[in-house]
Inverse folding.
């Protein structure tokens, strides 16, 4: 199925994809997509729920979740976690409790009726666009992307943070959205490295930054390269190294990408973590990231208070610490999206980034339908993230065929015309 026909099939109303692909039901307003079902040649087929227990009795895995649900859950879940932690980023836990009570923040603060995201979600969107642009030229998801195109997409994000829309003549898909020009705490390392205009690499690091800006934007890589977690790890690490030169930044990005790749293919969480650890150990400088991961696993099985456990891992400003905090939260509450994100943001550190990464992970694990629908509806850029997830998922069917300019333009036109984003 080509991208243009894919986009046409996801117009308003109920559309059935042929050849046993996912069926997506849309509301008349084109807002929140409802439950997915699998199609057979004879119509709908209701799968029996299958749960696999592993490691601990608290873990269960529902295989009655479509892959597209997991794609959407990953991206939208990340945005929700980002918005959840945005208001308390770098607040001390005492300040959080003084403001929101002894149990901390338990709801997502609204601004003008929506849950506002930060630069974490903005850059995740630009990662999606860079991957789609790379696919437009390479037409495959079984080889590395064009990193120059990914870097160019990040430069486009940089332009939205430093220029007005009027100053930019040749706007890409995302650059046509006014809301993406709003500054939401852009990270210093990303801004400084992109200002230089020279992409970094693992072999030739552009700086020695360990910041979480290297990992918080890479979840879409796990979606695009989900058939090959080892490749996803490599692409995630190399993409992170475009802006962040330290292993404690780019190795967590590789780990997150490989983990997401496994999760959307129904690999149970602990198995997916173990698989990614095996890949991680092949990378020089992995020790600190591995230590954070091992702490997350150990503490999640203990009776430690969540805040104490998390702050024993770190505060999330570094990539390895942010990954560890996110993993702890999801391992502690693997089947409860709300509880996992609540733990991930209620600490004295970089709450929006740890919330975003945790949201990516648990969203890929439990799927979008396990996320409260009001959270999905009200998080900023929800519809745009959904369209990006649909685009990335359909690329799996295109690995042997290149995507023409007309086909990619169809995706751009669908997104630009149908996605209405609040403007501040």
């Amino acid at each position: 199925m080509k991208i243009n026909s894919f986009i046409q099939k996801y117009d308003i109303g109920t559309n059935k994809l042929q050849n046993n692909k996912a069926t997506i039901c849309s509301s008349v307003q084109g807002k929140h997509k409802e439950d997915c079902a699998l199609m057979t040649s004879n119509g709908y087929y209701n799968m029996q729920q299958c749960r696999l227990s592993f490691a601990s009795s608290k873990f269960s895995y529902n295989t009655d979740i479509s892959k597209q649900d997991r794609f959407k859950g990953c991206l939208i879940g990340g945005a929700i976690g980002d918005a959840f932690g945005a208001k308390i980023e770098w607040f001390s836990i005492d300040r959080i409790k003084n403001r929101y009570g002894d149990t901390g923040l338990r709801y997502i603060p609204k601004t003008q009726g929506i849950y506002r995201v930060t630069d974490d979600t903005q850059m995740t969107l630009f990662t999606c666009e860079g991957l789609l642009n790379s696919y437009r030229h390479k037409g495959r998801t079984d080889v590395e992307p064009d990193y120059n195109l990914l870097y160019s997409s990040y430069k486009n994000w940089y332009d939205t943070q430093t220029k007005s829309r009027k100053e930019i003549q040749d706007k890409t898909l995302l650059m046509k959205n006014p809301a993406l020009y709003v500054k939401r705490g852009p990270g210093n390392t990303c801004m400084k490295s992109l200002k230089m205009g020279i992409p970094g690499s693992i072999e030739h690091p552009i700086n020695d930054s360990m910041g979480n800006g290297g990992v918080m934007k890479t979840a879409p890589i796990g979606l695009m390269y989900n058939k090959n977690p080892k490749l996803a790890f490599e692409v995630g690490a190399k993409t992170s190294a475009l802006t962040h030169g330290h292993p404690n930044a780019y190795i967590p990005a590789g780990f997150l990408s490989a983990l997401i790749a496994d999760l959307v293919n129904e690999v149970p969480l602990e198995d997916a973590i173990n698989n990614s650890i095996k890949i991680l150990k092949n990378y020089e400088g992995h020790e600190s990231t591995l230590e954070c991961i091992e702490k997350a696993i150990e503490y999640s099985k203990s009776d430690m208070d969540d805040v104490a456990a998390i702050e024993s891992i770190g505060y999330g400003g570094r990539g390895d610490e942010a990954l560890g905090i996110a993993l702890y939260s999801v391992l502690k509450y693997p089947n409860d999206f709300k509880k996992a994100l609540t733990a991930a943001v209620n600490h004295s550190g970089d709450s929006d980034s740890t919330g975003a990464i945790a949201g990516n992970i648990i969203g890929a694990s439990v799927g979008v339908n396990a996320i409260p629908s009001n959270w999905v509806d009200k998080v900023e850029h929800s519809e745009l993230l959904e369209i990006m997830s649909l685009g990335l998922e359909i690329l799996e069917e295109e690995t042997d065929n290149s995507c023409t300019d007309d086909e990619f333009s169809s995706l751009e036109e669908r997104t630009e015309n149908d996605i209405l984003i609040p403007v501040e």
Notes: Residues 9 and 255 are 34 Å apart (CA to CA). The mean pLDDT is 83. Strands lie at 14-15, 22-25, 37-40, 43-45.
